[in-house]
Amino acid sequence: MIQEERIKKLNNYIFQDNKYILYWMQASQRTIFNHALEYSIYLANKYDKPLIVYFGLSDIYPDANLRHYNFMIQGLQEVEKSLKNRGIKFIIQSLAFLNKVGKKIFRNKVEMLVIEL
To answer: Looking at the chain, which terminus has fewer C-beta neighbours within 10 angstroms, N or C?
Structure first.
């Protein structure tokens, strides 16, 4: 179980029986020792909802170059394989996509959003 001090409720959400739990993965690009992922899995199981893990890819990381992105993408491929083995859908999209289209896609479908702080 996740330690209570790791959980910070950001609003007074009322359960509405939407379609899935969404975990927005960003800093913790791994499936081992990832408390936000484990909490997301706990919520998905508790509410009997599928879990979707989203990673927002950005081209504005300070001082990042092609080699950095290549390394990150290789790691995300490992994340995708690990999540698939656990029956969890993984979506990688640009943050620009989220700003333009994703808000409409996610609106009224996400039961809970788990983020890393």
So the answer is: N
What's the length of the chain? 117
Angle at 114 between CA 8 and CA 87, to 5 degrees: 140
Amino acid type, 59: D
Residue ranges of domains in the chain:
16-53+67-115
Q: How confident is the model at residue 105 (pLDDT cuts 50, 70, 90)?
A: low
Are residues 82 and 31 in contact, defined by beta-carbon separation less than 8 angstroms?
A: yes
Residue-wise pLDDT tens digits, 41-65: 999 999 999 999 999 888 777 788 8
In the chain, the amino acid numbered 100 is: K
CB 117 within 8 A of CB 8: yes
At the topology level of CATH, where does 16-53+67-115 sit? Answer: Rossmann fold (3.40.50)
